[in-house]
Protein 1
Amino acid sequence: MAPIWSLREFLVRKREALSAFRSRLRDQPPSPVTLRATVTVAAGTGLRPVRVRDHTVISDSGPALGGYDLGPNAPELLLAAMASCIAHSALAIAADRDLAIDDLQVEVSGQIDYRGALAVSADAPVAPISLHYTIKYRGEATDAEMTALQADLERLCPVLLAVLQPQPLSGQVQRLEA
């Protein structure tokens, strides 16, 4: 099925939406939006359905970790969130600048050493390493425009910045009542 709009047409609509949203934000007191993701582990399978607003994404592990490989694992979801956020931020910047882009693709890659996460080796890193993103585009936007877009993206992409400039995270454990 062919898309209803070309990417260029979408960017025009996005620019209009961003402008209207920014106007609403300027007219109200500062109020951060609460974000929430919830997982209730499925008994017997260990599947981890992740609920975000009215959406569900299934997270699972491969058989080597006792899973069924029915969905991406958590480190893969981190890369997916980064790819999605980089793409969205790039689109917002491109829309603001009226850049002529006909196609946009983002790939994020990294490595994980399960020896660290599974406490097999104290010398192995636990977190994903060697993170890298690539933005591929087609259109009339110049190399200079895309370099400027990348620079702004690296200061405006929330998920990318959460990884580059980690925030404090508090946690707790609570007993569920039967």
Protein 2
Amino acid sequence: MEGPGDFYATVDVVDVVDGDTFRAIIDGEKVRVRIMGINSPESGGYREEEDWGAEAKLYAKKKLEGRTVHLFSDPGDPATDQFDRLLMHVVMENGMNYAVLAVAEGMAHTYILGHQELTIGDTLRKAERLAKAERKGMWAAKADD
């Protein structure tokens, strides 16, 4: 299986937490997975809901929940974050990278930390510029950025 980094696992998505986080079963244990390269508006729960948070969560549910996905780590980045979530690239069964799709549809921002050189960083940045230009998703009501 090819992807944007090193293959980690093929998993079934149990439930979606929000537009950039879901739970999956790995080795019999329910694990939270944070999707690398994106940040979606908050959908409530631990943090106050933000504009487009509910839409981003619904989008993720439609694309991921109950489906099988492939997880890939990114070379040079840790496999977990400070909240003990797996940090992974997520490739859907159709071969699409979920992060790129979510950004292209205006359901998430590109989120790349200063020290990171994500393998799909340029693709994410281009997808966000296009989503803004086409006023997709969260960008529909915003003034030119």
Protein 3
Amino acid sequence: MDLRTDYFRAADEAAVQRVMKHGQQPPGEAFESVQTRGVDPTVSLPHLVAALRGEGSPVKDGPDRSVWPTGLQPWHPEAPAAAVDLDDPWMTGPWVVELSDETRDALAGIQRKRLPQLTSQWNRTDELKGVERIELMRLIHQLGVLARRAQKDGQHLYCALAE
């Protein structure tokens, strides 16, 4: 499944939840964003962050926490024992996760002179092998710009995932 993965910046999770609750537009359109497909925040993005930090492999797998949908996940141990509702927003999406400020800060440190090296390293990630190098380089640059603006304005980075 090739999910739409829109990375965006926002002041806080309350701002994100207001946009999601009203559902008039996706967060990738409501906030300044970098829109892409298949660049999963739990699988692909940690490889770029590891390359930025000079680490061989990702330190952790994924974002710190989910922002949308809200409420108890149906698979949570404290959730009521009931048949899984396939129409539940937890099952259908869209989903929004908040990236850690450490990830934001690492992305904010992307330097133009490192783009070719970062592109080569990130292109070795299995999930991104079919992506054109120029497209990856552009994406890395755009993520860096977005992260720097978020950092400067005291905002956080989020990723909206949708089919």
Protein 4
Amino acid sequence: MSDEEKREQANLKAQKELEYYDMSSIDSYPVFKDCDEMLTTPDCFYENLHRTVYNKLKEQKIPIRLAVKDSVYLSITVAKSGKIKYDSIFKCAKEIDKFKMDSLLQTRLNDLPVIESARKRSIPVSSSYRLPIVFIPVDSLEY
């Protein structure tokens, strides 16, 4: 068998292997430094992501007026380098000005941490997530 035939056979084998694997899912979630790498559940990732976004948003009051508790869903990407990036608002309540909120989120969430990225077959990959954020009117907070 010639070198060219071996290469072609290897390429065909690799192609078939890629078809076998579901590349739309990940094998392991991104990992924050506070998470135990041995845990395979996404709980620690989501808890830390929520906490990180919450801490960024609570630094200053958010200048929106709400009559009732409402929410937005954010699209967040963790690059294969581990950099967390706010992408956009995926879904927004009618009462919230989507463009104003997106601008505010772009400003507040521009400096998110770098973590260990998601993995597929032990290879770092980019992954995207939808994160719900609930806004509660200040007047309705209980003390």
